[in-house]
Amino acid sequence: MAQDSLHRYLFDGVSVRGELVQLSDTYQQLTSGKEYPAPVKKMLGELLVATSLLTATLKFEGSITVQIQGDGPVSLLVINGNHDQVMRGTARWQDELPESASLHDLVGKGQMVITIEPEKGERYQGIVGLEGETLEACLEDYFARSEQLKTRLWLRTGEFEGSAKAAGMLLQVLPGDENKEDDFDHLAQLTDTVKNEELFSLDAQDVLYRLYHQENVNVYEPKNVTFKCSCSRERSASAIAAIDRQEVEKMVAETGDIKLHCDYCGADYEFDSVDISAIFNQTGPSTGTVH
Ligand SMILES: [Zn+2]
């Protein structure tokens, strides 16, 4: 199968749009940073697929963060993806987790926060309670409330020929045709028949042909999906520069250096007293020029 990619498609004469995403490397790289227990890894995979499907609908440059917070043993799951389908994410958990735990066993009582951040313009945040049994149901609930468009999602994770796979699909009624429920329900029933093995092993065109061979499907140019963290030493330095200088110097005096850890990719950035004075002398208030 080709690289990790996302396909968007439309049906001739039916006001429904679709998306199909198939991930292998992105999922493996995203989950290789920590020793995730199996059920957490599975949920991160589902959330990764969901975020990819959501970011594909962005009509501007920017990013979407989907965050699940709760009072259960898994307190946080978060995935961030941008208009270029560059993804990153992480999870926090405690205790031993049962292999076959449900969403509610893992997260407990909680909520899903979806933050849409355009590079230019105001950010939008939507919050839904985790009332659905599955992540799919919770997201369908979000779409019903926020966009008032009938939407179905299919999120799958598993293994194929020894490698971890995550894949999924989305169907949504096009705005203005909300009364075409029969067409939508028919396509959703066809999509329900998709097998994990098909999603994990077949090319997108073949998956779509198997599901919808009686329909005319127009598929857009696919987009590659990749894992990459946007953290850097420079960004960490500007985060330090934003803290009070005396506070920072006190911390360095106590511990010898300042360590910043990126939760998304596991990278560590260390700054000793020389680095710290360089940061503040570059960015601190000007005290006059010395010639
Ligand atoms: Zn990072």
Question: What distinguishing features does this structure have?
Answer:
33% strand, binds zinc ion, 291 residues, disordered C terminus, alpha+beta, Hsp33 domain, six-stranded mixed beta sheet
Characterization of this structure:
It is a single chain. By secondary structure, the protein is of the alpha+beta class. The protein folds into two domains: 5-227, Hsp33 domain (3-Layer(bab) Sandwich), CATH 3.55.30.10; 233-283, HSP33 redox switch-like (CBS domain Like), CATH 3.90.1280. It has helices spanning 25-31, 38-55, 103-107, 135-146, 181-192, 196-201, 204-212, 233-241, 245-255, 273-283, and strands at 5-11, 14-23, 62-70, 74-82, 86-93, 110-118, 124-129, 151-160, 163-173, 217-219, 223-224, 226-227, 257-261, 268-272. The strands form three sheets. Strands 1, 2, 8, 9, 10 and 11 form a six-stranded antiparallel beta sheet that branches. Strands 7-6-3-4-5-12 form a six-stranded mixed beta sheet, with helices on one face. It binds zinc ion.
